[in-house]
């Protein structure tokens, strides 16, 4: 395990934002490769936020210093591949500030403002093999090293009892939290997880065999709620399939059948069925009224799944399940999906943009979920530039280990998790298996919420997490 040194603080600037929040923007420098620091560095960006109060009796200097050293809680965003929202837009900010924390929002390397991944920069690194080697450095193992380096930097002057910090991991942020618990548990006070109990012992193929089952259930729910969309989806597919490469999009790339049916990514969230229906209605209405898809509709379509602006989500999605050496993804979602009748549009492989014609009323094309397919690297302009590196990553099996099962079994850090029975992205049974491994993990399980409940049902989720933390069990 690499020895972690404190990150180098490059700059920081503080300001106030509405709602009496004191925000500090930080830029840090960390090694690109912790095992080979001579290879250069990356910049990380973070925002820390604490309450800005004007008490009747002004605080003394000592009181001000102690207020600025409240224990940190770090929010770990889902994804992978997404930077953080502004602190005032996060559902957890006010809750955690009122609990006495200050909150840190750190953009993972390659996301947000932390040396964000982009095709032009990637090409400057050399051959596709060189690019793949760089991309391998953007996984959770290095996210955790970055976090620990930043913790050592920010808490250097803190009292000893405030140097540890807490984590709040949403979705992929929970995966990162479990890696943190495996590698640097001494830096942690407590961990909160929402939809983030990662399948720490399952290969990509095993993960997708489980999650496709839930995707199928959500498709059935969708077509039961919007039966008219069976005809609408078939009509849109037929129109797209008439074009050899797909329908050109305003910002480049193409609307392919794969890209259309990837809209099912939203099915696992509160309101997801309705949002997909709204877009399908818009697409089919264009065809009925004009016989074409209009620019405004195509713009709405291309903005729905932001692989171009968040390429890590596509290029590293399967590798997050490559949890140890010897495990390769090899386009697992594609291989598993094309075995199901209702995902026949995925095969044959050489005709991804021209799937079978759907004529029978019983032959319904299903939407995919949180899956990435080779065709995405032909229809998104940014991903087209990364296709060769993505192919190399798909065959890679010399990954570093993400989890230490023995460490998790003897874990001493309190862990409080919300797990969702109908989670389309993190299989509930695999999550249960992980919860049984992590010593001391307390879990709130529910079939009344979906994966994005921390945003859609914030009060309920956070309330349950803190109830577990604050209420003792006899």
TrEMBL record:
Its taxonomic path starts at: Eukaryota, Fungi, Dikarya, Ascomycota, Pezizomycotina
Under the heading InterPro entries, the entry gives: AB_hydrolase_1, AB_hydrolase_fold, Peptidase_S33, Serine_prot/Carboxylest_S33
Biological source species? Rhypophila decipiens
Family affiliation: Belongs to the peptidase S33 family.
Keyword Transmembrane appears in the UniProt entry: no
Residue runs in coiled coils: none
Question: What is the name listed in the Swiss-Prot or TrEMBL entry for this protein?
Answer: Alpha/beta-hydrolase
What residues does the AB hydrolase-1 domain cover?
A: 72-234
Q: List the SUPFAM superfamilies hit by this protein, alphabetically.
A: alpha/beta-Hydrolases
Q: Which GO terms describe its biological process?
A: proteolysis
Q: Name any one GO molecular function.
A: peptidase activity
> Which UniProt keyword terms apply here?
Hydrolase
């Amino acid at each position: 395990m690499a020895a972690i040194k404190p990150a180098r603080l490059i700059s920081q600037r503080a300001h106030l934002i509405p709602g009496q929040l004191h925000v500090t923007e930080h830029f840090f420098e960390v090694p690109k490769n912790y095992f080979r620091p001579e290879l250069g560095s990356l910049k990380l960006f973070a925002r820390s936020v604490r309450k800005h109060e004007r008490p009747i009796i002004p605080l003394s200097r000592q009181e001000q210093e102690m207020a600025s050293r409240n224990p940190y809680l770090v929010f770990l965003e889902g994804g992978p591949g997404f930077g953080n929202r502004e602190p005032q837009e996060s559902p957890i900010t006010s809750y955690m500030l009122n609990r006495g924390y200050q909150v840190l929002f750190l953009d993972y390397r390659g996301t947000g403002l932390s040396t964000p991944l982009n095709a032009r920069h990637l090409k400057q690194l050399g051959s596709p093999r060189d690019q793949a080697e760089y991309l391998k450095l953007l996984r959770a193992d290095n996210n955790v090293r970055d976090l620990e380096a930043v913790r050592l930097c920010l808490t250097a002057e803190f009292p000893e009892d405030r140097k540890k910090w807490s984590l709040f991991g949403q979705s992929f942020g929970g995966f990162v939290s479990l890696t943190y618990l495996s590698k640097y548990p001494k830096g942690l006070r407590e961990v909160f997880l929402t939809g983030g109990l990662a399948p720490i012992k399952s290969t990509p193929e095993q993960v997708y065999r489980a999650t496709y089952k839930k995707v199928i259930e959500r498709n059935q729910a969708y077509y039961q709620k919007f039966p008219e969309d069976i005809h609408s989806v078939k009509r849109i597919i037929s129109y797209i399939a008439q074009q050899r490469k797909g329908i050109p999009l305003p910002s480049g790339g193409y609307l392919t059948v794969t890209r259309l049916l990837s809209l099912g990514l939203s099915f696992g969230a509160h309101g997801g069925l309705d949002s997909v229906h709204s877009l399908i209605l818009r697409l089919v209405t264009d065809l009925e009224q004009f016989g074409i898809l209009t620019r405004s509709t195509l713009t709405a379509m291309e903005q729905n799944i932001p692989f171009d602006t968040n390429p890590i989500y596509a290029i590293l999605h399967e590798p997050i399940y490559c949890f140890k050496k010897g495990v390769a993804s090899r386009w697992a979602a594609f291989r598993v999906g094309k075995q199901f009748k209702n995902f026949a549009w995925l095969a044959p492989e050489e005709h991804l943009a021209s799937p079978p014609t759907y004529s029978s009323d019983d032959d319904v094309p299903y939407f995919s979920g949180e899956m990435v397919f080779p065709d995405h690297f032909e229809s998104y302009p940014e991903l087209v530039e990364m296709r060769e590196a993505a192919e190399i990553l798909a065959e890679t099996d010399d990954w570093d280990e993400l989890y230490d099962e023995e460490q998790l079994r003897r874990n001493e850090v309190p862990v409080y998790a919300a797990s969702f029975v109908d989670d389309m992205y993190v299989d509930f049974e695999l999550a249960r298996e992980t919860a049984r491994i992590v010593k001391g993990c307390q879990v709130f399980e529910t079939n009344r919420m979906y994966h994005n409940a921390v945003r859609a049902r914030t009060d309920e989720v956070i309330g349950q997490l803190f109830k577990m933390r604050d209420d003792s069990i006899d």
